[in-house]
Here is the input.
Amino acid sequence: MIARTLPAIDRDNEAYWTWGREGKLAIHRCASCEYFVHPPVPFCPRCESRDVAPQAVSGRGRVVTFTINHKPWVPDLVDPYVLALVAIAEQDDVRLACNIVECAPEAVDFDMEVEVVFEQAEDLWIPLFRPVTA
Ligand SMILES: [Zn+2]
Here is the structure.
């Protein structure tokens, strides 16, 4: 487990950090033009609608880019670990900053297919991604 500084929760990002309790990855989506909006804000940057709400997505995606951290920035940090940008399967410009888990850091690669898993931290469920094996 990676030592984490937990995010401050507000009305906009609550679904992203808590729907993992039900095994769901929540991404805001515009009801007018169907554009996914991330980081979550209450308006659509494409059509300017305010009819935007969290929606469960498949949890599948691909690694766009990544880095392997070897430096123990904070006490209790288990290194090395992988920090990545994952594009969700539904929309390639939704990029989630996350960790890749359940595989050796050197096994992570560009365009690797991944799926979401959640790690509970207090009352939050942190979205992480692991390689798709099936
Ligand atoms: Zn829109």
